[in-house]
Amino acid sequence: MKALKIVVILLVVYVGIVIAFESLLGYYQPAGESTLVITTTQKNGASNDRVLARLDSNGALYVAANHWPRAWYKAALHNPQVQVTVDGVRGDYLAVPATDAEYARLQAEHGHGMMFRILTGFPPRYFVRLDPR
Questions:
Q1: Strands 47-53 and 55-57
Q2: Which residue ranges make up each domain of the chain?
Q3: CB 128 within 8 A of CB 97
């Protein structure tokens, strides 16, 4: 019984760490040279900006849903006509889910280390190709 309590406490602490890490990333949205801002339209018509890591592969621009909070990803799938700001230049793009081949290539090129995966709670990862319109 004592071992079960310890496991439950450790699990609760771990979930708390994941929630704190994800919340801080969402709140601060760190931006830099390797990021972009995607503007998606929610189902209710409201637009939402999100800072994401920019992934370049084979001459195409990609972003990844790497975290549990992924409203931007769901909005991009619902309405793939998005706006993207890269290096201060805003443009219209079409958000296209990555193919299986693209997924495998991107995962190999832009994989995450174990520490990142632990801190984010091992969320499933999805890639989106951003095609200029």
A1: unpaired
A2: 2-132
A3: yes
What token pair was written down for 96? 């296209």
| Cα 21 from Cα 37, distance rounded (Å) | 20
22-33 confidence digits (pLDDT tens): 888 777 777 778
Give the chain's radius of gyration (CA, Å).
17
Model pLDDT for residues 108-119, shown as the tens digit of each residue: 999 999 999 999
What is this structure's pTM? Answer: 0.85
What are 92's two structure tokens? 């219209």
Q: Specify whether domain 2-132 bears CATH 2.30.110.10.
A: yes
One-letter amino acid of 91: G
DSSP track, the chain = -HHHHHHHHHHHHHHHHHHHHHHHHHHH----TTEEEEEEE-TTS-EEEEEEE-EEETTEEEEEE-SS--HHHHHHHHS-EEEEEETTEEEEEEEEEPPHHHHHHHHHHSPPPHHHHHHTT----EEEEEEE-
